[in-house]
Amino acid sequence: MTDVHGERSTRQPEHKYAITRDQYDAVLFDLDGVITDTAGVHAACWKQMFDEYLQKRARQTGEAFRPFDLAADYRLYVDGKPRFDGVRDFLRSRGIQLPEGSPGDSVEAETVGGLGNRKNDLVNKIIEEVGVEPYDGSVKLIRQLRHRGFKIAVVTSSQNCAAVLRAARLDAFFDIQIDGNVILAQHLAGKPAPDTFLLAAKLLGAEPSRAVVVEDALSGVQAGFNGKFGLVIGVARKGNADELRRHGAHVVVNDLSELVDRPTTRDLLEGQPDDE
Ligand SMILES: [Mg+2]
Fold it and tell me: Domains in the chain, please, with CATH?
């Protein structure tokens, strides 16, 4: 089939890894570090909270204070996981075991719940005071995918998802939102378990084999791999492409603009995705 300009209307992917409608029905995006520039905010808040705790603990026990490492500790133990899993897994890596407490614990409580909530307070404060920026390439890709009839979900461990999407003016973009509140309410296992992505695909009516997972966290690409999704795309903003591949990414990009096609003649005739 050709269009009025004699151009083949079967879209020829411009990139090696184009997300095409004949192969996939749905695209499931992680939030922090994939859509919005908030992974750094989370990492900084984790560090502030853990360092304050570790310093206090060092004073009490007489052990040396070893700060939270923004690069290694964040990637290996915390990134992408539900908040309380992150607290527990990092503390375990330092041989520390705290009582669980509960998700409603006050920020003063020396429990997994209390430490997690301290970190959450810090994040909310920054989102309110500084705001949130989405990545341009991610916005362009999502607009293009919507224009081409893909179902789109955001799948995040964050309980701040709604606030972040609102702050980034992206709240109308997604057919389905699976966030930290859904995880708690439905007792889902968090990433690296595939459950959150599988639920999103199910709610969108897409088979996992025809759904794409887009993730920047090691726990996230692992979840995509564990769920046997058709395509797992790692976003290597921290120069960790090899590590993402080792944890299950089929392909790795540095920024989602690498997946945006130049508009075809048909797109132009039907209206640019950016006009939506
Ligand atoms: Mg992320």
Answer: 26-37+133-269 (3.40.50.1000), 40-130 (no CATH)
